[in-house]
Write a structure and sequence with these properties.
Elements (H helix, E strand, L loop, with lengths): L51 E9 L6 E6 L2 E7 L10 E4 L4 E4 L1 E6 L12 H11 L1 E6 L10 H14 L3 E4 L15 H5 L7 E3 L8 H14 L2 E4 L12 E2 L2 H6 L3 E2 L1 H18 L2 E4 L5 H12 L4 E5 L1 H5 L21 H13 L4 E2 L28 H11 L10 H15 L17 E5 L4 E2 L18 E2 L2 E7 L2 E5 L2 E2 L4
Helix pairs in contact: 4-6, 6-7, 10-11
Bound molecules: zinc ion.
The site of zinc ion has 5 residues, from loops.
Length: 489
């Protein structure tokens, strides 16, 4: 079972300081000697759920014979043939015969909109959507109001997630103050805070200034945190609303060219190569980005990348109806891009799937296409969509993958990239019970109105999906039971 799991990063390699030049360093050198990965995850509000939980008859990674998995005080304590374990009399027993057991999913990229736009999503409603989607940890982006650019906002987000206790909600800190792209935030202070921020991003915007990005990469390397880049050269995308191509030309929509993404991917790969930090590419969307990532991998550059379900599944042909639900940033591209992204996820050039869950109110979506806000919901549909595309209904010509592939790209790799303890771990005795169970016999139809999210802007309205998350477990506590959220009593 262990041979399929790539070696975990035990820590970060020591790197020389590289700020020997005379340019003014815009960020105070706070706690340069420490590393985020050395601190324990503080501020867990709840202990692991006490008592016993028995998952009966599950297939680990969808393989082999049905097994019983016994959880005690939040930890897996036994995995035996189905029917052979006798739990405590007061144990919570879930009959899950033949369902697929996976590690709890980890989403590196969501927007939970709190603070500031609680009318479209809150940390509580987003956590409910996450639990229903099989997620046990999510990372919520910094483009809130106020921006998550200080320890106070980061700790507020983390604590609200802990109070809800449906999913670990990790705040992403912004790279620049107020997302203004001018001055770095204090990564060290946020990393050392109770929220223990381990990823920084101006997502929604690109860190367009190359000198500022260079400083961010240097500073992040010192601290062992990750810089996640929304790759969009802003001058090349002014006023752009759709992929630059035949469809946009025909529909009269301003085009967003591939080069606007790829030029930043190339720049950031070279910065990561030369300045000692780890850079992560958000929502890769083009064939050229895949080629650049493959090159960077070959050079040993510490560059990782995610892809969204919608960039794997949908193309700009969906824009024919001018439906604002298909407006997203980066935009839906062409078939050659979706095919390149799928192959890259299978061969490991792309590391993982992230949803870019982006709730919007109906007034922000049901309007002219070029006035619609970019973004789509993702948390509750992603597992089913990825299972359909890669496992249960792989299209002709694409080698079908197994459930271990889903575990890798939706749980293990994101947890590794973020050096996140307790999540994305093997299904084994002694591991924390952060788990997700998939019912492969339960077809369902996605409707925005039925989702736990406050918003309903799904591009999959009315789409029938082949599998459903039945159960999610966070540190031994059942957060989703039979497809429904289990709130704290
Ligand atoms: Zn983005």
């Amino acid at each position: 079972m262990s041979s399929r799991h790539p070696a975990r990063h035990a820590g970060h390699s020591q790197r020389p300081q590289t700020n020997g030049d005379t340019t003014r360093r815009t960020t105070p050198a706070v706690r340069q000697e420490s590393n985020v990965n050395d601190y324990p995850q503080t501020g867990l509000l709840h202990d692991p759920a006490p008592g016993e939980l028995l998952l009966r008859g599950v297939l680990l990674y969808g393989e082999g014979e049905p097994a019983d998995v016994l959880v005690r005080d939040g930890v897996i304590v036994a995995i035996e043939d189905a029917g052979s374990l006798t739990p405590d009399t007061d144990a919570d027993i879930l009959g899950l015969d033949g369902q697929v057991l996976l590690p709890g999913l980890v989403d590196m990229h969501v927007h939970l909109r709190e603070p500031g736009r609680e009318d479209t999503e809150t940390i509580a409603s987003g956590s409910a959507a996450a639990a229903r989607g099989g997620f046990t940890a999510v990372f919520t982006m910094a483009n809130t109001d106020p921006v998550t650019d200080s320890p106070a906002v980061a700790e507020m987000v983390w604590m609200k997630g802990q109070q809800t206790n449906l999913c670990d909600v990790h705040p992403v800190g912004s790279v620049t103050r107020g997302l203004q792209g001018r001055e770095l935030t204090e990564f060290g202070m946020m990393a050392a805070s109770g929220a223990k921020v381990r990823m920084f991003s101006d997502d929604g915007r690109c860190v367009a200034d190359p000198q500022l990005m260079r400083r961010a990469v240097e500073y992040s390397g010192d601290l062992g945190v990750l810089i996640a880049e929304h790759c969009e050269e802003p001058r090349l995308t002014e006023g752009a609303v759709a992929h630059e191509g035949e469809t946009a030309a025909r529909l009269g929509l301003r085009g967003w060219p591939r080069v606007a993404e790829e030029s930043v991917v190339a720049r950031d790969a070279l910065l990561a190569r030369d300045y000692g930090g780890r850079v992560h590419i958000c929502h890769a969307s083009t064939e050229g980005t895949v080629e650049l990532l493959r090159w960077a991998r070959g050079q040993g550059i510490p560059l990782t990348a995610e892809v969204t379900p919608h960039h794997l599944l949908l193309t700009d042909e969906k824009l024919e109806t001018y439906d604002g639900n298909y407006r997203v940033n980066p935009p839906l591209r062409e078939t050659r891009d979706t095919l390149a992204l799928r192959a890259a996820l299978i061969d490991g050039t792309l590391d993982c799937v992230a949803t870019d869950h982006a709730p919007h109110g109906s007034e922000e979506k049901c309007c002219e296409f070029d006035r619609a806000r970019p973004g789509m919901l993702g948390l509750e549909t992603s597992l089913a969509l990825m299972a359909e595309l890669f496992v249960t209904d792989a299209p002709e010509g694409q080698r079908p993958q197994d459930w271990r592939f889903i575990a890798r790209v939706m749980s293990e790799r994101p947890a590794e990239i973020l050096r996140l303890p307790g999540h994305g771990r093997p299904l084994a005795v002694g591991e924390p019970a952060n788990l997700c169970v998939v019912d492969t016999t339960r077809r369902w139809t996605a409707h925005g109105a039925d989702l736990a999210s406050k918003a309903s802007n799904t591009p999959y309205e009315g789409t029938e999906l082949p599998v459903k998350v039945s159960t999610t477990v966070l540190r031994g506590r059942v957060t989703c039971r039979d497809g429904e959220v289990v709130e704290l009593p």
